Fold this protein.
Amino acid sequence: MKIADLRIYPVKSCRGMSVERATVRERGFASDRRAMIVSEGGRFLSQRSHSKLAQIVPNPSNGMSLTIGEKPIAVSFTNERKRVGVWADEVSAALATDSVNAALSEFLGEPVYLVSMDSESHRQTDAAFGDPRQVSFADGFPYLITTTASLAALSETAGDMIPMERFRPNIVIETDTPWLEDEWTTLEIEGQRFDLVKPCTRCVITTLDQNTGEKVGQSTMQALVKTRARSGAWGRGVVFGINAIAVNPGSELRKGMSVATT
């Protein structure tokens, strides 16, 4: 097995990007989900309710920029802070400049703010799934791992070629046999170890085109309901992929690296 793809999402629920290499940090890959768009009241926005977020293209190179439609906007953050909510967690985050917030508000049709997770921001994973670790603005855990064979099997059930980006993974493993990941407990990539803590429950985002936000893939959710309904200590739902934490962060992963599991 080897790494087929590495992906980061610089702004939560906005357009993701494939990268050749990524640095492993405790909170997630460097530049992954360290920024987020929130409502006037501070609650996070996602494609579940704001599918147009898929049209916002972040670029973390040489400082953050956002392309909204065809217009690139340089992003900077102020010393002002805002309390923001991610599911049950409340986090102190740095607030972007007024011009950035105004451009996003105009695009989304309501008052919104871009915030950043910096060194003063703290958020932990759920203690029910091992020792708490720092985590980004991701839904719950720093890393999401998927496999190519499982996607192929799900696509066969759906009768449609499902793009992997609809599942928004961080690490895609090239495999020959589907659903091997159901039995894995750890993943090791040339000395970098990940503990696999729980299956990832899926939502309506799996039915959205990740370039436009258009709802195009109802067959994806139908296939998940048919073959991947599960329950456990984490609850109940349809699952695809595994949430993970990095045991010894600091390494750089690259596409093509070999993968071992237990």
